[in-house]
Amino acid sequence: MTAAMYDLMDYDEVLEKFDPVMGMEVHVELNTNTKMFSTSGTNFNAEPNSNVDPVSLGLPGALPVVNHQGVEGAIRIGLALNCSIAESSRFARKNYFYPDQPKNYQISQYDEPIAYDGYLDVVLEDGTEWRVEIERAHMEEDTGKLTHLGGADGRIHGATASLVDCNRAGIPLIEIVTKPIEGAGARAPEVAKAYVSALRDLVAALGVSDARMDQGSMRVDSNLSLRPVGTTEFGTRTETKNINSLKSVEQAVRFEMQRQAQVITDGGEIVQETRHYQETDGSTSKGRPKETAEDYRYFNDPDLPPVHVSREWVEEIRQTLPEMPWIRRARIQKEWGLKDEEMRDLVNAGALDLIIATAEQGAKPADARSWWVSYLTGKANEQGVELAALDITPAQVARVIVLVGEGKLTNKLARQAVDGVLNGEGDVDEVVKARGLEVVRDDGAIEKAVDDALAANPDIVEKYKAGNTKVTGAIVGAVMKATQGKADPGQVNKLIAQKLK
């Protein structure tokens, strides 16, 4: 079903009648070299079913061993989220049958998570600060990946067959679960988006994950229920699974608010279920009935001993935490002299960290800002992706800026170089060489182009001699056209001035 096929209540009417309650569950894949309980690799681009071993395939007699780096990553995330770190935590078996879980259970943590009772303060678009309380952050292993064939957009609905890839099975995951988020009202979708955005920035800053939502290394499940205004009892919740962009997080919450409100008002019943987000129109569709904790039959994994964490180790890790994103932003704002609104615009556009990273690669902050918030934002909009998902790195943008500063590329040629990188034609220097983009510095060739342009435009020459010095722009344009934009504009202007005098 598409959004148009659902009866949706007007958003303002929803808020008059109901109070939304949210809960966010975010799964973060850690960037360890091996899996959570085995020595198998974790290469994202590996051939299907090549990064597997007896443990991740659930073969009889294969015994798991805890990844030390995975535990450290969990502690780093817990500390950054202001959580308490448990001195002892346990792994449990979460039992369910699904084709992408070879052994029919997932190793996770249930009643003894490694991190608990934390919070993350997030900033909304108008500068309002909102505290999201964290229930827990626990360790677990990822499942395999299903590729559905025959359905729309690779989803299970309408699929005629599904392929199983177990490469992802066993990759370390940290699941971060919030406490119920109440009182957001009309701003509930915005709060959800701001929280996921802040969490993504935090995880990336910690260096424990690349937090690429588009590649599945950070996945969001959004829980939502409605209760009549003035009441306190929670309504029945739905869980929208595997949302993979900030925009989608916001749309999924808003859609569920409108859909549930209409169902309740029409006398229907909200079913506790999972739902699938539809990228095409921002709707959600029915998944499967949602299990309760009892349905998973959790019990302590007999193959894994408790994880003991010393206070000394926790403090050692705490000392290695990087500057938190919100602290860095305050420092950058002061150093760059940005106004509050300018800083908020950069953050909301997802551009700030990219600009900072580009400046750290040798570009001037002003130049980095200009490229990311203008040309590259336009390219992201054309592709319908977030800025960070563009196939270009801050280092590559910095290289383009350096080449412009050295006079080896004009701004026009630089944009062509960036287009080449975005098209997958190679690194910046490879694109410049392959496309022949470097600025022409042959004095003879440029002088001839200037002479030809002056000869072809005698009226402009007369106007210049009459005192109108601003008309030379047409001559410059003619020279740039003749040289396919490869002439050095400074050199062209200098030659024109010399000849006209």
From TrEMBL:
GO terms for biological process: glutaminyl-tRNAGln biosynthesis via transamidation; translation. Its EC number is 6.3.5.-. It comes from the Bacteria. The keyword Aminoacyl-tRNA synthetase does not apply. SUPFAM superfamilies: GatB/YqeY motif, Glutamine synthetase/guanido kinase. Residues 288-300 have a biased composition (Basic and acidic residues). It is an enzyme of class 6 (ligase). Residues 353-500 form the Asn/Gln amidotransferase domain. Residues 277-301 are annotated as: Disordered. Keywords: ATP-binding, Ligase, Nucleotide-binding, Protein biosynthesis, Transferase. PROSITE patterns: GATB (PS01234). One of its GO terms (molecular function) is asparaginyl-tRNA synthase (glutamine-hydrolyzing) activity. The keyword Transferase applies. It catalyses: L-glutamyl-tRNA(Gln) + L-glutamine + ATP + H2O = L-glutaminyl-tRNA(Gln) + L-glutamate + ADP + phosphate + H(+); L-aspartyl-tRNA(Asn) + L-glutamine + ATP + H2O = L-asparaginyl-tRNA(Asn) + L-glutamate + ADP + phosphate + 2 H(+). Heterotrimer of A, B and C subunits. Belongs to the GatB/GatE family. GatB subfamily. HAMAP family: GatB (MF_00121). Allows the formation of correctly charged Asn-tRNA(Asn) or Gln-tRNA(Gln) through the transamidation of misacylated Asp-tRNA(Asn) or Glu-tRNA(Gln) in organisms which lack either or both of asparaginyl-tRNA or glutaminyl-tRNA synthetases. The reaction takes place in the presence of glutamine and ATP through an activated phospho-Asp-tRNA(Asn) or phospho-Glu-tRNA(Gln). This is Aspartyl/glutamyl-tRNA(Asn/Gln) amidotransferase subunit B. It comes from Corynebacterium phocae.
